[in-house]
Amino acid sequence: MKLKAYLFLLLAICGLLGNAQISVEKTWVENRVNPSGITDESPRLSWAMASDKRGASQAAYQVRVGLVARKGDSPDWGFYDSGKVESGQSVHVAYVGPELQSGQQYAWQVRVWDQDGRRGRWSPTGYWQMGLLRPETEFRAEWIGPGFAEDTINRPSPYLRKEFTLDKPVRKATAYITAHGMYEARINGKRVGDAYLTPGWTSYDTRLQYQQYDVTDLLQKGKNAAGAILGNGWYRDYLAWGDRRDHYGDDVALLMQVDITYADGTTGSILTDGTWVSSTGPIRNSEIYDGETYDSTEELDGWDQAGYADASWEPVRVGDYAKDNLIATENEPVRKHETFRPAEILTTPEGDVVVDFGQNLVGWVQLRLGGSAGQEVILQHAEVLTKEGNFYTDNLRDADQKATYILDGSPEQVLEPHFTFYGFRYVRVEGFTPTPDNLTAIALYSDMDQTGQFSTSNELLNQLQHNIQWGQRGNFLDVPTDCPQRDERLGWTGDAQAFFRTAAYNFNVNPFFSKWLKDVAADQLDNGSVPFVVPNVLGENSAGSAGWGDVATIIPWESYLLYGDRELLATQYPSMKQWVEYIRSQSTENLWNKGFHFGDWLFYSPDDDRDGRAAITDKYLISQAFYAYSTQLLLKAARVLGNQEDIREYEALLDDVIRAFRREYLTPSGRMVSGTQTAYVLALQFDLLPEDLRKQAADRLVENIQSYGYHLTTGFLGTPYLAHVLSRFGHTDIAYRLLMQKSYPSWLYPVTQGATTIWERWDGIKPDGTFQTPSMNSYNHYAYGAIGDWMYQQIGGIQALAEGPGYKKFRIAVSPGAGLTRAEANLDTYYGTIRSAWAFEGDTFSHQVLVPVNTTAEIVLPYGAYDAIREGGRHLDRADGLRRLDDRDGKVRLVLAPGTYSFSVAVERSAQEAGGFAGTYRFTSGFSYEIEVESLEGGNLRMVTSENSAVYRPDPTDPLLYIDTDEPSNTVRFVANEAGEIEGLQFNYGSQRFEAQKL
Fold first, then answer.
1. How far apart are the first and last CA of the chain?
2. 702 by DSSP, 3-state: which?
């Protein structure tokens, strides 16, 4: 009997271990973690799994949903149970249980069965709370605004308040709040929530967000007080250039409703209505561009608590404003994030006291300071200093970017703005002598989950990645703005579409762009034209440019590709179609050669180009290329959505558009009418050339790049695709050459100049230290950061596949080069984390890969024959979880099941260094000309001077020595620094030696 009991216990333990092999690690509801304000009556549930066994996949799942009486209570799991559902779907699984109710909080869990029938444990409990499903009727509160006559010049922020008594203990309370303008709500002396700049920026006329908060812990039995401060915000602030104000109205107003469930089960509400009162307080002025003025001597101590003497306050004005435009918040709110202490406090040559925070960021400075009553302190914000070291604000144009505080005499005050934000690295201080303890910079941006990590052995590339991510943080402040500092800060559509792929690697931008794309559709003109900026504050005449309006097709498709979000694609499909039809209406025989277009915005053009190489691309060539591309994407969307009539319609249209492009802009020999980098890049990226003319076009592109000394000349529309086209047509070495280029124009040039974000212009600060034109010269402008997409895809190797959207199926294909000795990319998806990390260690190339549960990966191994590659030290034939796909172009391709893999293969040192030596070198002795070093297949190098050229092979015993294949007495020894980066060379010509420095 004891033996049987022991065996039974052993079998039970083994069974538990088997069941534990697959587990749910993370859950989402409508692409967010534990969200509130869900208004989809069939919200989509997603979960990511982990397993300690290769090949793990989901064969079935079970979802259960419970009711939650109040935050922190145990759920009542009797509400819904799906039972076991035979399905492998784990992303965007629609809830199909009982009807959901407005305001109700739900808990949910999921457990899964793997491919062998083993059941996992229940996931950690996730939550969601429903918003108001019918806000136009369920919002019983009234719109209220200040009852006093406003100062229409300075517009001090109105303060609104109401006292009320609760005669029973509160079990649960939910606040629903929105405003015309911005609001900060308070209950019983405490701030409601941790979101800032609420209710955010949308196309207010048709889409005004409300926020939803659990305020149970803020209420108490007995006397209570609720209040709110209002700011002008995007609703009625100055926006864009010139005297543009009151875009959506000239009022500020509050709509607030607190729904309460008492401990005895009864309910009640606190509503904004005519019983509230209003006054002004210490916020004397607050504008997005100019900043905020706060007079502490006007502080209203206790105004947001019960018992405050408000007899002098004016009754509020009740407004008859619409509620049919109210929507729940669909994306993450703006929150506080990183903080920065002063890196340096300096006195400029002009005598200004300036604080350097070491990072260009968006947010504000929190001030801790004591002083005399009435003392005025001014903080002015800027991005850069002049070459002489003086404070520079010319590029801000009409934006003052100031924070002005009047102290009240307290020994220490903690002060920060409320309804504005600043783009800055430097702060000029007036009115006191700062110390590091006085000032803390706080970053503000939409609270997106960071999903991507990328690093290499090259610190300049790592800094470039840092700059790309901080450019995104600073400009993803509820809408994707172009810049965060000057008098603009608008949602430029061209910038957003160019950067979207990179953005989606760095952060989960699915909710962020889902919200913004609905504003794109809302602001789309009746004729289908898409505005230059969204929300549109520039008017109906500012719409219809190629590459800008194409945001309507590009982001919906790419969002589907990267997140698998079919619902978003279906939602945006009418907008996609309207944009393509607008283009068709503007075309003659499907040639779009009319109207205003920005063209390849901010492309590089040499100052004195007399040989016809100027990088000016015909704007109508660009418009026709994007006509074709948008039609392609609309056609792809139609196929996914099964719109058969549209498939036939747009297949025929696409053929016509491509024929028109070739007829107008391509010679029979394959030369483009505009011979620029952008022209060839767009034609190749969008498949506009006949197959037999594509290789020569790619070669012409390379020749153009070489003619500019291996520099790019592309602007906002050509840059995102440049490196991708080069890699696609076998010129990854040239793509690396461009990426590693340090002189202007290049991605690394700003890095060498100390940039901490991406610049608007390639030469925002010129090599001589002077500035580009201040009328358009932002130092935080993410568009050129689109190279991050190529870095993740080619260096990190993580590539999405259309046949498995949302990374259900994906490819790992790294392209080592430029002397990099290691690189790592990680990407968190709805299926789990994808990891790709490679390194050269001695004579071995290793590659670590993580494939999430419930996905499949194709891997392309860059080195070695099938029989030479090892996985976990084993021959590939003996490794589990993988199968051979094919061998093409000298590379082994495998299909990987979920799991962790470790590949290794012996490589020649020359393979490690290929491309690392390439570049331009200037002789410091002997010769007056330069030498170009180009990498060739097999690890050879070509040395090119104005006199001759020769091929050099690597010395197998010395990785830094290369030998002339025709004249072995001629050698080149490269000089590397401690980080392994090539800095120069020694050219040995017979018995003579010359030295050159790498540019």
1. 82
2. helix
CA 692, CA 666: separation in Å to the nearest integer? 13
**Which has the closest alpha carbon to 747: 699, 703, 795, 700?**
795
CA 509 and chain centroid, separation:
6
> And the tokens for 547?
């590459």
Q: Could you tell me which residue, 70 or 398, shows the higher pLDDT?
A: 398
Given a contact cutoff of 8 angstroms between Cβ atoms, the answer to whether 157 and 280 are in contact is yes
Count the alpha carbons within 13 Å of 823 in the hemisphere toward its beta carbon: 24
DSSP 853: T
Spatial separation of the C-alpha atoms in residues 522 and 22, rounded to whole Å = 43
Burial classification of residue 348, based on how many CB atoms lie within 10 Å of its CB (0-12 exposed, 13-18 middle, 19 or more buried): middle
For residue 345, pLDDT beyond 90: yes
Residue 488 annotated in active site: yes
**Exposure b/e, 549-582, CB count within 10 A at least 16 = b:** bbbbbbbbbbbbbbbbbbbbbeebbebbbbbbeb
In this structure, what token pair is assigned to residue 173?
Answer: 């309370």
Q: Residue 7: what are its φ and ψ, rounded to 5°?
A: -65, -40
Q: What secondary structure, in 3-state letters, does 40-79 show? A: CCCCEEEEEEEECCCCCCEEEEEEEEEEECCCCCCCEEEE
Give the residue from 856, 881, 886, 857 showing the smallest Cα distance to 871: 881
Mean per-residue pLDDT, 402-409: 98
Amino acid at 773: T
- With a cut of 90, say whether residue 382 has pLDDT above it: yes
Sign of CA dihedral 474, 478, 483, 487: negative
Residue 156, preceding peptide bond in cis (omega within 30° of 0): no
H or E stretch including 689? none
Nearest to 571 by CA among 528, 533, 530, 518: 518
Neighbours of 883 (CB within 10 A): 11
Closest-CA residue to 892 (of 903, 902, 879)? 903
- What does the alpha-carbon distance between residue 112 and residue 396 come to, in Å, rounded to a whole number? 55
Residue 921 to residue 949: CA distance in whole angstroms: 14
AA letter at 327: I
Specify whether the CB–CB gap between 833 and 850 falls below 8 A. yes
Predicted local confidence at residue 613, as pLDDT = 64
Residue in the structure block whose two tokens are 């030596």: 917
Calculate Rg over the CA atoms of the chain: 31
Token duo for residue 74 = 């145990």
User: Whole-angstrom Cα distance, residue 353 to residue 390?
Assistant: 10
Question: One-letter amino acid identity for 922?
Answer: R
Tell me if residue 581 is catalytic. no
Sheet of 44-51, strand order: 22-29, 44-51, 93-94
Q: Does the pLDDT value for residue 691 go beyond 60?
A: yes
Residue 45: which pLDDT band, with cuts at 50, 70 and 90? Answer: very high
DSSP tag of 290: T
Q: Cβ distance 580 to 586 under 8 Å? A: no
Q: Element (H or E) spanning 567, and its range?
A: helix 566-585
H/E element, 912? helix 909-913
Helix (H) or strand (E) holding 660: helix 644-665
Partner residues linked to 26 by β-bridges? 48
Report how far residue 600's alpha carbon sits from residue 602's, in angstroms, rounded to the nearest whole number.
7
Distance CA 981, CA 331 (A): 43
CB 685 within 8 A of CB 724: yes
For residue 273, give every residue at least 6 positions away whose Cβ sits within 8 Å of its Cβ, in sequence order, or none: 141, 142, 144, 318
Residue tagged active-site, from 760, 871, 913, 934: 760
pLDDT in tens, 299-336: 999 999 999 999 999 999 999 999 999 999 999 999 99
What tokens does 394 get? 């010319």
| pLDDT surpasses 60 at 387 | yes
pLDDT for 608: 55
What number is the average pLDDT over the span 415-421?
Answer: 98
930 touches 947 (CB < 8 A): no
Q: Name the catalytic one among 184, 488, 558, 934.
A: 488
